[in-house]
Amino acid sequence: MNRPVKLLAIESSCDDTSAAVLVDGxxxxxxxxxxxxxEKYGGVVPELASRAHQQHIVPVVDAALKAAGVAVHExxxxxYTQGPGLMGSLLVGSSFAKGLALSCGIPLIGxxxxxxxxxxxxxxEPKPKFPFLCLVVSGGHxxxxxxxxxxEQKLIGKTRDDAAGEAFDKSAKLLGLPYPGGPLIxxxxxxxxxxxxxFNTSKMPGYDFSFSGLKTSILYFLQEQQAKDPAFIQDNLNxxxxxxxxxxVTYLIQNLERAAxxxxxxxxxxxxGVSANSLLxxxxxxxxxxxxxKAYIPAFAYCTDNAAMIGMSAYxxxxxxxxxxxxxxxxxxxxxxxx
Length: 339
Known about the structure:
Helix content is 42%, strand content 19%. The chain is α/β, with parallel strands linked by helices.
C-alpha cells in the first residue's frame, strides 16, 4: 500500500473505554472515558463496567475520529483488544470493532493487551533497541517480557498469584484509602520515610513474582499495631505508604536487574498502569545510570489502558499482514507466549 495506513484502535479490557486513530504508526488522537461508578465499591464491578462501555464506545470513537480529522470511509483497518481482560468489557469492544470492519469491508486486527503495553514504547522517540527487556506492571498483571524484534515477545517471568497493581490497591484499602488507591499511596509516600517499616516479600523461582504474602504481611502488621493504638494508621500514614511503596518497587527492580544481568540485555523499560508510579520511574532510571544501560519509560498517557498502544501493536500486525477474523473470540486470560 503506497498511501498512508489509517487505523482505528479500540481498547475496552477493563474500566476505560478508549479509541485512537493512527496514521502510519503516528498517533493522531487518543480518547479515553473512565468509569467513576466503581469508586464506591472499592474496585471494578464487571457488570457495571460492561454497561458503561456500551454507553461510552460510540461517543469515544466519534471523538477520536473527529480529533484526528479522519472519516470512517478512510480507515484501512480496525483494531481492538482481544484479551486478556474482563469478558463483558472485551465483548463490547470486539463486537463494535467487528461490526465496523464488516460494514466498511476492511481488515480486523485483534491485539493482545499485554503485548500492546510493551508496544507503547514504540509510539514516541526514543524507541527501544533489541533485545529489549520490559517489566509490565498493572492491576491485573506483573510480567517480565523479552523482545527480540517488533513481532516477537517472550514471557520470562510472571506473578504466581496477585499483581503489583493489586498489591498497591489492596494495601491502600487496608489503610482506609479510597479506590483506586495505588496513586494515593504514591502521593502520600512522597512525604514519608520508606525505610521506617519493613514487610516480607516472597522469593520465587527464576524471575517470577509473588505478592500475596506481602499483602498478608501488611495486614497482620496493621492489625497488631492498631490493637495497641487505634490511631496508628492515621498518625503514620505517610511512612506506611512510603514503606509499602518501597517494598513493592524494590522487589520489582531487583527481579528486572537480575534478569537483565543474566540475559545480557542493556535496554530495559517499564509499562502498564503501575509504570506511572513516581518511585518506580525514578528507580529504573537510577538502575540504568548505575549499570550504564538505557531505560525507556512511556509517557503517562500511554501507561494506563489506552487505545494508542493497541493501535501501535496493530500497525505492526498490519505491516506483516496478520489479520483476524469475525470468528476470533475474546479471551479473559492468556497472552504473551512463555518460554
